[in-house]
Amino acid sequence: MKKNFPLALYLSFSVSIFLLLVLGTWQLNKNFVVNKNNKNFKNRNQENSLKLFSLPDKIEDLTYVKFSKVNLTNNFLYLEPRTFKGQVGYHKISVIQVDGKYLLVNEGFITSKEFINNNIKKNKEIEGYIITVPEPKFFELKNDIKNKVWYTLKLEDFEKEFDLKLSKYILYQQRGNEDNKLKSVVPNLVSNVNHLNYALTWYFLSIALFVIFFIFLQKTIKNMNNNENLILVRIIGLILLFSIFLQIILGAWVRLTGSGMSCPDWPLCYGYIFPTPNKIVNIPNVDYSYFQIFLEWIHRANAALVIGPICLIFSCYIIFKKHLHLFLKKYAYLLILLILVQGGLGGLTVFKSNIPWSVAIHLMFAFLLYLTTLLIILKTYNLAENTFIANRFIKITTFIAGFFTMTAAALGAFTSKYGASLSCNNWPGCTDSFFPNFSDMFQVIHFSHRVIAMLLVLILISLFIALKKYFNTISKNIKLILLGMFLIITFQVIIGALLIYMEVPIWMGIFHQSIGLILFTLIVLLYSHINLKRY
Fold it and tell me: Using an 8 Å Cβ cutoff, are 81 and 89 in contact?
């Protein structure tokens, strides 16, 4: 008796492996951050300190500063509990005034609370390491403001307590050994914990669990019939197809918002696996908003954490499953090749500073990845019910229409990245004349995209005319595909014109590419249902 595929168990394994990978990646990110902070900590000390008379709006974490002429205040509290060299105690937090601004200072570790006022002094010198006040972690205790018990550095709570507007920074005071009561401490950004070992442990556990899951999966699949295997391929394929569709749309969003270089390195982003606002705000010379950085990060994360793993697992399953069609296995190999090339192109695009030709090729390969996944899914269906017999002209014309759709999208990306989106400010002509100024490269590139789009319209019109004589014999589903193609190409022409007159609003540009991809999908569906007439 054949057993049904245990979907709940499959999801449990998948979620567990995913969580282990997330934990490993989190620890790997911590390792990068800690190594960077430790290096900065070693390179910044009293010998190369930054001497300041005022508090700057932006300063890099772990900079060693010497403030001259600061005013001490009578505002202080104790963070509890803290440890220092095996002793349990507190960190004394006070407030100083620097050129009219108020700054938190961690004076150091003390074993017991001393409820005495600070000695108020003016024009005093103070030095130490300065960092951005970290956000409290979700597992840390909340401050008890009512009873004045403090556990975490939370600016909002301290501002209420002191009734002052505080800077986002805190200074960890370094005073030498002259004070026997207060021991200078360093920010917890500096650590001796080997996060790489933790990361490797989590990754090893995820691999071990995956091996167990794979062995179990193989035994389970042996008990499944061929139809159940095809259904599984179809489900995973549809998830992958949707992920690639989303990736192409995210790519358009990144391009239209000018966010392609908001993460200037690859595969990390400013040296971080996940660039939080607190990390980005202290990096000098960042000319992008956090939204742009996060958008580019999401674009990369979807590729690396969703599309890549699903694609490889999906392909390996098809390749190693004995009774699946040879067609599926060939396309599974192609899928692996395409995802590897696409990953390399993603890195190349960053290293080449989003040069237009690399962006266009990157999008072209995304379409090929989408096409290959779609063809695998279609092979899991019985298409005979909707298949119709047509002549060679219709088959070839449909193929050419698909190729021109993909080319138009790639050339559109090239035009956008080249900065030529509005070089032709009229429609359907370029400027005052129909044709562009051929000595103006911007106009030539823009008009080339229009020419490909116009040719695509003509190809589809000729296809519709050629299919007219088959209209009574084709199924209702094929008629719906043709209707969808007609509506989309009409809509695309209208949007193309509106993009010029509305000066390329971002939402419309994204929509333009979205329905272009839907048109490509419908053309592939049509092509898959055409059988050549036998003479």
Answer: yes
- Paired tokens of 79: 């963070």
Q: Each residue of 34-50: pLDDT tens digit?
A: 777 777 777 666 666 77
Angle at 49 (CA atoms; ends 44, 51), nearest 5 degrees: 150
CA angle 251, 254, 259 (to 5 degrees): 145
CB atoms within 10 A of CB 436: 21
- Ranges of beta strands (E only) in 249-406 are 388-390
Instruction: Count other C-beta atoms under 10 Å from residue 123's C-beta.
Output: 9
Express each pLDDT in 114-155 by its tens digit. 755 556 677 788 888 888 888 777 667 788 888 888 888 888
Phi, psi of 520 (to 5 degrees): -60, -40
Cis omega before residue 267 (within 30°)? yes
Which is nearest to 460 in space by CA: 505, 386, 523? 523
Please name every residue paired with 166 in a beta bridge, in sequence order, or none if there are none.
102
Residues 417 and 354: their CA atoms lie apart, in Å, by: 8
Q: Where are the alpha helices (DSSP H) in 380-440?
A: 392-418
Q: Is the peptide bond prior to 428 cis by the omega test (within 30 degrees of 0)? A: yes
User: Chain-centre distance of CA 85, in angstroms?
Assistant: 41
Question: d(Cα 402, Cα 270) in Å, to the nearest integer?
Answer: 39
**E strand or H helix that includes residue 69:** strand 63-84
CA gap 520, 360 in Å, rounded: 17
Q: What is the pLDDT of residues 164-213, one digit of tens each?
A: 899 889 898 887 665 567 888 888 776 666 777 878 888 888 888 878 77
Q: Which amino acid is at 305?
A: L
Give yes or no for a contact between 530 and 390, defined as CB atoms under 8 angstroms apart.
yes
What are the structure tokens assigned to 254, written together?
């990144």
Q: Which residues pair with 93 in a beta bridge?
A: 77, 106
Q: Strand 101-110 and strand 124-132: pairing? A: unpaired
Tell me the pLDDT band of 487, cut-offs 50, 70 and 90.
very high
The DSSP annotation for 97-148 comes to EETTEEEEEEEEEESS---------SSEEEEEEEEEPPPPPTTSPPPBTTTT
Continuous segment of H or E residues that includes residue 218? helix 195-222
